[in-house]
Amino acid sequence: MDFGLTEAQQMIKTSAKEFLERECPKSFVRAMEHDERGFTPELWRRLAQVGWLRMPFPEESGGDGQDFVTVALLLEEMARACLPGPYFTSVALCGLPIAQFGSPAQKREYLKKIGDGQLIMSLATLEPSVRYDTAGVQLEATARDGGFVLNGTKLLVPYANSADSLLVSARTKKTARPRAVRTATADDGITMFIVPTSARGISLTPLKTIAYDPQHEVAFNNVQVGRDAVLGQVDGGAAIFDKISQWGAVGSCAMMVGAADKVLEMTVEYVKSRVAFGRPIGAFQAIQHHCANMAVDAESSRAITFEAAWHVAEGLPETDRMVSMAKGWTSEATRHLYALGHQCHGAIGLTLEYDLQLYSRRCKVWEMTFGDANYHQDRLTRLAGL
Amino acid sequence: MDFRLDPEVEAFRKEARAWIKQQIPPDWDQRERLLDYEEPDGVVFSMDFQRKLAQKGWLVPHWPKEYGGQGDHMKHMVLTEELAYWGLPSGGQPVNQVASILMAHGTDEQKKHFLSGLAQVKWKWAEGYSEPSGGSDLANIQTYAVEDGDDFVINGSKIWNSAHIGPDYMFGLVRTDLNQPKHRGISFLIWPMNVPGIAISKVPMMWGRSRALVTFDNMRVPKSCVIGERERGFYVAMGSLDVQRATLDRLANARRLADWLVEYARVAKFDGQKVIDRPGIRNQLAEIMMAVECYKMMIYKVAWMQSKSIPSTRESSIAKIFGPDLMQRACKVGMQMIGAYGLLEPGSKWAPLYGKIENQYLENFARTIGSGTSEINRNVVATRGLGLPRG
Asked: Which residue, among A82, A74, A90, has the nearest Cα to A25 in the 3D structure?
């Protein structure tokens, strides 16, 4: 066993810290919370320049071939800095599936462009049922004229207003609704499509969220796509959906781990300097024990998150179980952690002027995407045959 | 990062498991909770079992070759975890903490006598750290020795130990200089328990077993019982705390407890309804399964840090907070799963899992108290781990 970082990972982590400190001050983060696009083209160009947009893609697609553990380390740093923008959805949640499941033509078409910043994609899987499994996929794709016609609604599609294409889950065949949430591979009625946002019949409605990030309702009204829009096999999309759920859940965990570390750090600094009753409040055991409990939450989340990230990267047989363990645990522990952070800060931590709330609002998003604790607790027991 | 298990370690783990399976009686699952290692038949079982380990070369594989070991820490860690998982004795504190103190501080004569005896399981031992007036405040040692020629005359008392097994030796801390400040003036001693002036009484505990209170009334032992430098005993003991073994023990206990619950949940039905489908059970059990996985990785990380000589005070104190808390929650969930049957003590034909859950539910209250309370560990994490000012 080796808990250390490889040289390449250490380098990426260190340079990420430097880059983000320079390019992503909190003044920028705040400005972007009220920006319609939510990030700037300049920022995106800079991310392309430092190579992050292509980092996880295979070398033959113009990438650096870094594994998912490295992606998770980078997401952790991005979350520490509250970096705005569609990195997670475009590079990880759309780019990685194309790299793994795409046809040679799709890889040529999309990966190079995502990697050098010319093309932005976003994942559109959640529907009004807000189910995290394929049973929630009701958007219909009907075969017609050698292609498909899509009808339905997707919710909470991040940065859809900046995306050139969407990766969409659709139902191409009616299947018995799975009784229990497990892995979706058994659902043989799902197909994944790459759909340009410029296609006729797509309409966006912005949704205001707890994290002030640009998310959208995307309506599909008789949207026509060709056969070449299918990622993977027709009716064989569930395996892709499952894999995206793994990247999504563990990526969300990595972001919670980064944010949690930063919240703990801010809280420790605050209680050391804030004086009440004639001494720093960090000298009171009541506060010390809150901070120690935060450290327990941070350490346990980090342990299980990177174990899961490693499983995902290696594609091991226990990966699904590990992913649910990580997402179930980290979702709860992080919420507990930032709640204690708020308690230690008192009223000042609740003001918009103070940075703490930037993290608590974002963590709630990561907690609720790709399955909250409740979902993954249930899923874990079912994967264990209970 | 690479969390692949070392093939060499896994091969030995398999070998150890196969051997253990051969050694334990077929009804071990049932007997285990009824067998008390501090009552006569349990003591016999424990001593016999440790001798089998010694014969196999598995009692002290971690000792250096010069003292009769194999210098093999991997084997020792695997054995510690596997034996603890099955609730079997592994030599414990004497062959770990006491032995390492002897190796580091003992005279040649002390080493020769004690280490060879320890390796052969010649004696029974009891620990002498805690006192009725000092729990978390470990340096508050009140048991004191007065010099009389070549002897010490000792008065005081030691508690929460296993002296009711009839030990041959006790090891522990005694104040040998009353004029020095609290942490100084204490010496580490190993003394025989067959001398006059010792009274042992049982302290029955709420989980049906006992601890002992030992009182010394002018007990006379030779000064040569001191191991290491006199009046530096607090540091002698602290320098060799048996943290790694105790940690692996806890991990194994937590894994076993969670495994019991999962296996029980797989089969148990009350009145036709599966236990797992009763309100609230599924999610709570899942949380325990997740916590055990976190705990495993946290402990393996501490072991990795130690192997790389990376300071790990923060991480090991965090694990010491996490594990005991997890075990208490697991018992709470277990009691909810078995419902009113959880009221029955081990031995009842109605008690699910042979009463193990009821028994552990009660015993695990001690988890957040023994070997450093969770509050002391939170203080350590806050001050030494996070750099907060001392209160």
From this structure: A82
CB A165 within 8 A of CB A159: no
Kindly determine whether residue A325 and residue B290, on different chains, have CB atoms separated by under 8 Å: yes
Which DSSP category does A2 fall into?
B
In whole angstroms, what is the distance from residue A303 CA to residue A322 CA? 11
Chain A residues with CB under 8 Å of B2 CB are 1-2, 310
User: Is A4's Cβ below 8 Å from some Cβ in B?
Assistant: yes
Specify the DSSP class assigned to residue A1.
-
Superfamily, domain A7-119: Acyl-CoA dehydrogenase/oxidase, N-terminal domain (1.10.540.10)
Residue with the two structure tokens 């051997």: B19
Tell me the CATH class for A240-383: mainly alpha
A280 neighbors A355 (Cβ within 8 angstroms): no
Determine, for residues A1 and B2 on separate chains, whether the beta-carbon distance falls below 8 Å: yes
* Residues A1, B390: C-beta atoms closer than 8 Å: no
User: Which residue in chain A is spatially nearest to B6 when comparing CA positions?
Assistant: A1
Per-window interface: A 332-351 vs B, CB < 8 A: 332
The CATH architecture assigned to A123-235 reads Beta Barrel (2.40)
Measured between CB atoms, which of B283, B315, B390 is closest to A377?
A: B283
Locate the chain A residue with the closest alpha carbon to B387: A268
How far is the C-alpha of A347 from the C-alpha of A363, rounded, in Å? 19
Helix (H) or strand (E) holding A239: helix A238-273
What is the nearest CA distance from B289 to chain A, expressed in angstroms? 8
d(CA A315, nearest CA chain B) in Å? 13
- Flag if A2 and B290 touch (Cβ within 8 Å): no
Please list the pLDDT of chain B residue by residue as tens digits (391 residues): 999 988 999 999 999 999 999 998 888 888 887 788 999 999 999 999 999 999 999 999 999 999 999 999 899 999 999 999 999 999 999 999 999 999 999 999 999 999 999 999 999 999 999 999 887 888 999 999 999 999 999 999 999 999 999 999 999 999 999 999 999 999 999 999 999 999 999 999 999 999 999 999 999 999 999 999 999 999 999 887 777 788 899 999 999 999 999 999 999 999 999 999 999 999 999 999 999 999 999 999 998 998 899 999 999 999 999 999 999 999 999 999 999 999 998 888 999 988 889 999 999 999 999 988 999 999 999 999 999 998 7
Of B300, B315, B388, the CB nearest to A268: B388
How many Å apart are CA A206 and CA A275, to the nearest integer?
44
Q: Where are the domains of chain A?
A: 7-119, 123-235, 240-383
Measured between beta carbons, the chain B residues lying within 8 angstroms of A300 are: 291, 294-295, 298, 318, 322
List of domains in chain B: 7-90 (1.10.540.10), 125-238 (2.40.110.10), 242-385 (1.20.140.10)
ipTM: 0.96
Q: Are B156 and B217 a contacting pair, CB within 8 Å?
A: no
